[in-house]
Amino acid sequence: MELYQIRYFLKVAETEHMTRAARELNLSEPTLSRTIRQLEEELETKLFERRGRSIVLTESGSILMSRASEVLKQMEGLQAEVR
C-alpha cells in the first residue's frame, strides 16, 4: 500500500463519487479507478459498493478510512518534523 493510494482512497471516500474525486485530484477517472481496484486487490476486499453514479464504503472501507486518516496525519506530521 502506497501513500498516494491512501490519499486517493480517502478522496473517493470523502466525495462518494469517482468522477468528482478524480477531478479534485487532477487525475483521469480511469487512473483513479485503476488505483482503487489495485488497492482492493492488494487488500483482498472490496472497499466501495457502487450504487449508480455514487459509491459508498463497505465495512472494510470504513475500517480502512479510519485507520488511513490516522496514518496520513502521522506521515504529514513526520514530514513537517523532518523538514
- Helix/strand/pairing category: mainly alpha
Question: What does the main sheet amount to?
Answer: 2 strands, antiparallel
> DSSP strand (E) fraction?
5-15%
How many helices?
A: 4
Unreliable stretches (pLDDT < 50, length at least 5) are none
Strand order of the largest sheet: 1-2
Mean pLDDT: 92
In whole angstroms, the N-to-C terminal distance is 24 Å
Radius of gyration, taken over Cα atoms and rounded to an integer in Å? 13 Å
Shape by Cα distribution: globular
- Total beta strand runs: 2
**Element string (H = helix, E = strand):** HHHEEH
Helical fraction equals: over 70%
Task: Explain what this protein looks like in three dimensions.
- This protein has 83 residues and is mainly alpha-helical.
- It has helices at 3-15, 18-25, 29-43, 59-82, and strands at residues 48-51, 54-57.
- Strands 1-2 form a two-stranded antiparallel sheet.
- Strand 1 (48-51) and strand 2 (54-57) form a beta hairpin.
- Helix 1 (3-15) crosses helix 2, helix 1 (3-15) packs across helix 4 and helix 2 crosses helix 3 (29-43).
- The longest helix is centred in the C-terminal third of the chain and has 24 residues, at 59-82.
- The two termini are 24 Å apart.
